[in-house]
């Protein structure tokens, strides 16, 4: 099965550390300006998702959502969540660790696109 979102080993290690500190986590990428376009990490339940949020999948056991407008823009790519040194300006839980999450991507192959289309659209909100 083709994953719409995945994670680098470095980001996975940070997520595991954050889970040990904060418990269950969830991610959201809104596409807002500045750091709003970065994947944001929250304690599970601290960010409310709605009908305009698309559930792309899970990374390290954490649900990952993206705003509908951003999903339309990025739907032809696999999102790869990575981590780099530095601090974002948002409320994402990794900021005190001196790192920030960022999204890399790669275009799906024709075969992957066909598989995703056959599976239908991803669920919205917490469905």
Walk me through what this model shows:
This protein has one domain (5-119): HesB-like domain (Hypothetical Protein Aq_1857, Chain: A). The relative contact order is 0.25. The strands form 2 sheets. It has a 4-stranded mixed sheet with strand order 3-2-5-4. Strands 1-6-7 form a 3-stranded mixed sheet. The two termini are 19 Å apart. The radius of gyration is 14 Å and the shape is globular. The mean pLDDT is 91. The protein has helices at 9-22, 68-74, 110-119; strands at 5-7, 25-29, 40-43, 53-59, 62-67, 77-85, 99-107. The chain has 127 residues and is an alpha/beta fold. It is built from 3 helices and 7 strands; from the N terminus they run βαββββαββα. The protein is 24% helix and 34% strand. Pfam families: DUF779 (PF05610). This is DUF779 domain-containing protein. It comes from Skermanella cutis.
């Amino acid at each position: 099965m083709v994953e719409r979102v995945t994670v680098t080993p470095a980001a996975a290690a940070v997520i595991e550390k954050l889970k040990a500190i904060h418990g269950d986590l969830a991610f959201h990428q809104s596409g807002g300006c500045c750091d709003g376009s970065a994947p944001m990490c929250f304690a599970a339940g601290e960010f409310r998702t709605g009908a305009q949020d698309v559930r792309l999948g899970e990374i390290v056991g954490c649900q990952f959502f993206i705003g509908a407008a951003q999903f339309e823009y990025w739907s032809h790519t696999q999102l790869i969540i990575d981590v780099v040194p530095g601090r974002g300006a948002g409320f994402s839980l990794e900021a005190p660790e001196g790192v920030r999450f960022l999204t890399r991507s790669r275009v799906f192959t024709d075969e992957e696109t066909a598989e995703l289309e056959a599976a239908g659209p991803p669920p919205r909100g917490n469905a």
